[in-house]
Amino acid sequence: MGLEDLVNKAKEAVAGIGEQGSNVAEQAKSLLNSDQAEGVTDQALDGVANLVNKVTGDKFADQVAQAKDTLDGKLGNE
């Protein structure tokens, strides 16, 4: 096996890794847009919003609600 063969094998391996990375990215995107992810993100956002409101004495409740709604629109599927 010559140097050229080794270079070609390396190129093939790198191409395979790129394809796998693309598949993983698609799977992650699919998971983030699932019903299960929606429930988890809603629960997390509610918890954070409640904590911030508790710590600030609801002084920024409107801004917290707006931020929560904005993030909720970007996460999950609803």
> What's the overall average pLDDT, rounded?
80
Number of individual domains: 2
Question: How many DSSP H or I helices?
Answer: 3
Characterize the largest beta sheet: strand count, sense, and whether it forms a barrel.
none
Number of strands: 0
> pLDDT under 50 segments (min length 5)?
none
Order of helices and strands: HHH
Overall spatial form? elongated
**Secondary-structure content class:** mainly alpha
Radius of gyration, rounded?
Answer: 22 Å
Strand content: under 5%
Helix content class: over 70%
Write up what this structure looks like.
The chain has about 80 residues and is an all-alpha fold. It has two domains: about 1-30; about 35-78. Helices cover about 85% and strands about 0% of the residues. Helix 2 runs antiparallel to helix 3. The longest helix is centred in the N-terminal third of the chain and has 30 residues, at about 5-30. The radius of gyration is 22 Å and the shape is elongated. It starts with a helix and ends with a helix.
